[in-house]
Amino acid sequence: MENSNQHGEGPSKRGTMAIDVRGLNKTYGRGSSALHVLQDLKMQVPQGVIYGLLGPSGCGKTTLLRCCLGRLNFNSGIVLTLGKPPNTRGHGVPGAMVGYMPQETALYDQFTISETLNYFGTIFHLRGEELENRKTFLIELLRLPHKKSLIKNLSGGQKRRVSFAAALLQEPELLILDEPTVGVDPLLREKIWEYLLSFAKGGKTTIILTTHYIEEARQADMVGLMRNGKLLSESSPQALMDLHQTPTLEEVFLKLCMADVQEDDNLIDPPEGHAGVQSAFTAEDDTSKLLNDDKLEKGHLSNHSNYDSDDEIFVKYEKPPFRCLDFFPSFLNLWALIVKDLIKMVRTPGALAFQFLIPAIEICLFCLCVGVDPKNLRIAVVNEDVTLFRNESLSNRYLSYLNNVTIIQVPADNYSVALENAQNGDYWGVMHFKESYSKDLSRRFLPFVLNATLEGSKIDVRLDESNVQIAVSLQQEMLNSYEDFLTDFFKELQLNPELGQIPVDFGKPIFGDQNDNFTDFMAPGVILTIVFFLAVGLSALTFVTERKEGLLDRSWVAGVKPSEVLLAHVWTQCIIMLVQMTSVIIFIFAVFKVPLEGNIVLIIVLTALQGLCGMAFGLCISAVCDNEVSAVQVALGSFYPIMLLSGIIWPIQGIPLPLYYISLALPQTYASETLRSVALRGWGITHPQVYLGFIITLAWNTVLLVLSEILLRLRK
């Protein structure tokens, strides 16, 4: 480039700075392990120029741009972008004043080209005909495929051009391109520069691009050469080559790097007439005047040239007054985000179908497999009874009362052998009737019964209690059958059947039914667990994926607020959650007939609130985790502790005291008991046990949603 003014109006008309950076320091870490990414960096970019920020990978180029965009906090220094500090209320940075093309393509693969431009256009408040005209213009200018082409079907070069179009859509005052030519073929690189030069002709847009391809930046109006977080020099390419008497920018950069190695980390002004490390060019050079019209010393630029004092800066750029409306979400931004999430949802029909089907499958598996009485349990029966009562063996009569569906009776001749086989796992237990069982049982209820008679009328039972649930089922079946057998036997003896029962009368249950099983106890908690953790799964990877692909960062630069992202996600995921919740409630109460004594509306509302709580928890996970693996681990790792401590599988009254208080603080503990009280006890909202569940769930929703926004702002 022979004349640095060929793209603009001349230095006299471009004295206003698009980017004004002074004394910028950015450090990661603390103490001896601290990494100084930017070191007392000073940079000025006049409006209306193409500014190439050059340097090797890892020198701090992207970090500097993120600071200029308000995307990264820095330790010290002053940054003014388009005349004001980034993130100043009412300032369009981040926002529509900036077009940003990150190093990644940062596009939604499920979108078409038109939908991509519609998304960013809506955020930039372009409407109707204006948006359509810009789309048509950019598609033709950048020679993009048909506007209905899906992003995922485009080539790498086409994706970069779509990304470029998204950055240019609103005709920004400042266009920032982070490594736009990295990894592309030379032909596409030439095309990108062709587009840049055509956009810069009007002098209205300031273009800043980063690259480590030094020679290609010769086409820029100005270049800044960076190394190890320091700006070694900034001027026009031709001025730098003339000053250092080299034919290429690469040799200029080499000289500056060698000089920088010899200097101390703190910048030292070089002697007059020497090519300085900070910036070197002559006062007579027209190109030099782009950076500074005056206050130039021969051979180097004064470190404070063209800078206002700090006091002047703070007076000039005083923050605008507080306005409550600044914190309310923008309707257009919210609409764009909701449409974006809906498109992503619809374009993945397989995942959507799975999300709709999985709750019904889970509830069916629970109702069919949990709480149902075990069947086909093999029991060895050693019947040595040789006596009779009225020509009938009482042992055989009792065995006939046993439920053949639950217990499979396997006759055995020898008690020791049967016991050994049970120990080998062939049987769940052994029943042994002694030789005089019938005779002794008939005499057991006579006056002055002998101990030998009592002993002979007993049935010896040995059970495998390694599986407590099966052992309890066998005990219950044997005792219930024995009670029925004994009642009929007493009637035959013309005795009162009450004599054969324990003197405790368990009357009609206060709540529930005597035939209720473990399924009925677990069902309310399982409903909430399914809805809660499916919602966690829906949202736990949301921000992780978009952050990793650069999509979230691009939305932040476009001016989207964390509250808008949260609200849009909640609205769209609520659609899936409501379908999931509906299928769970229909299957458990209508299909599997789990008891429902109370108001179904209370159950629906509490279940929906628990789903929202799970979604908020997932958003917290997504906001704090950096990759998919850690997000999945946190989500899965929280599943069992919450389920075990919330009284879903076992009553919380059995939890040890320290854990008991932790259990009470969890979001599902009171909610599970509330749902159980409504479904099985029929209690209403006025009962403390019921409204406490709603209050605690609402409190958790508030805390988690606020925490999600705080984390998003901190990670933003």
TrEMBL record:
<dbReference type="GO" id="GO:0005524">
    <property type="term" value="F:ATP binding"/>
</dbReference>
<dbReference type="InterPro" id="IPR003439">
    <property type="entry name" value="ABC_transporter-like_ATP-bd"/>
</dbReference>
<dbReference type="InterPro" id="IPR003593">
    <property type="entry name" value="AAA+_ATPase"/>
</dbReference>
<dbReference type="InterPro" id="IPR047817">
    <property type="entry name" value="ABC2_TM_bact-type"/>
</dbReference>
<keyword id="KW-1133">Transmembrane helix</keyword>
<dbReference type="InterPro" id="IPR000412">
    <property type="entry name" value="ABC_2_transport"/>
</dbReference>
<feature type="transmembrane region" description="Helical">
    <location>
        <begin position="521"/>
        <end position="544"/>
    </location>
</feature>
<dbReference type="InterPro" id="IPR013525">
    <property type="entry name" value="ABC2_TM"/>
</dbReference>
<feature type="domain" description="ABC transporter">
    <location>
        <begin position="19"/>
        <end position="253"/>
    </location>
</feature>
<protein>
    <submittedName>
        <fullName>ABC transporter G family member 20</fullName>
    </submittedName>
</protein>
<dbReference type="GO" id="GO:0140359">
    <property type="term" value="F:ABC-type transporter activity"/>
</dbReference>
<feature type="transmembrane region" description="Helical">
    <location>
        <begin position="631"/>
        <end position="652"/>
    </location>
</feature>
<keyword id="KW-0812">Transmembrane</keyword>
<keyword id="KW-0472">Membrane</keyword>
<feature type="domain" description="ABC transmembrane type-2">
    <location>
        <begin position="486"/>
        <end position="715"/>
    </location>
</feature>
<dbReference type="GO" id="GO:0043190">
    <property type="term" value="C:ATP-binding cassette (ABC) transporter complex"/>
</dbReference>
<keyword id="KW-0067">ATP-binding</keyword>
<dbReference type="InterPro" id="IPR027417">
    <property type="entry name" value="P-loop_NTPase"/>
</dbReference>
<feature type="transmembrane region" description="Helical">
    <location>
        <begin position="565"/>
        <end position="592"/>
    </location>
</feature>
<feature type="transmembrane region" description="Helical">
    <location>
        <begin position="598"/>
        <end position="624"/>
    </location>
</feature>
<dbReference type="InterPro" id="IPR017871">
    <property type="entry name" value="ABC_transporter-like_CS"/>
</dbReference>
<feature type="transmembrane region" description="Helical">
    <location>
        <begin position="690"/>
        <end position="712"/>
    </location>
</feature>
<keyword id="KW-0547">Nucleotide-binding</keyword>
<dbReference type="Pfam" id="PF12698">
    <property type="entry name" value="ABC2_membrane_3"/>
</dbReference>
<dbReference type="GO" id="GO:0016887">
    <property type="term" value="F:ATP hydrolysis activity"/>
</dbReference>
<dbReference type="Pfam" id="PF00005">
    <property type="entry name" value="ABC_tran"/>
</dbReference>
